[in-house]
Amino acid sequence: MKVTVKYFASIREVLGPHESIEVPEGSTVGSLRALLQTRSGAHAEVLGPGRALRAALDQTLCDESAALREGAEVAFFPPVTGG
C-alpha cells in the first residue's frame, strides 16, 4: 500500500518536504520509520533509533504502534518546546 510521508523542521532540511513509499499491509508508523532508515544514509541519520521524533498519522499525533492504511499521511518532526 502507498503512504505519503511529510517531513518538518530540521528533518525537512535534510530529506526534503515529502515522499511517497510503498509499505507492506499491516505496517505501523514504527515499521515505516524503520523502512525509511534503509533508504539512504541521510534517512538513517535523521530518523535513526536514537533520534527523538514525534509522529502524526493523518494530522493526529500518534505513537509508533499506530496502524497505517492505504493513502495515509504520516508526518515526522522533532519535538518542539514552547516558550
From TrEMBL:
Keyword terms, alphabetized: Nucleotide-binding
Entry's Gene Ontology cellular component terms: molybdopterin adenylyltransferase complex
The keyword Nucleotidyltransferase is assigned to this record: no
Any one GO molecular function term: nucleotide binding
GO biological process, alphabetically ordered: Mo-molybdopterin cofactor biosynthetic process
Keyword Transcription regulation applies: no
Annotated Pfam families: ThiS
NCBIfam families associated with the record: moaD
Family as reported in the entry's similarity comment: Belongs to the MoaD family.
Name this polypeptide is given: Molybdopterin synthase sulfur carrier subunit
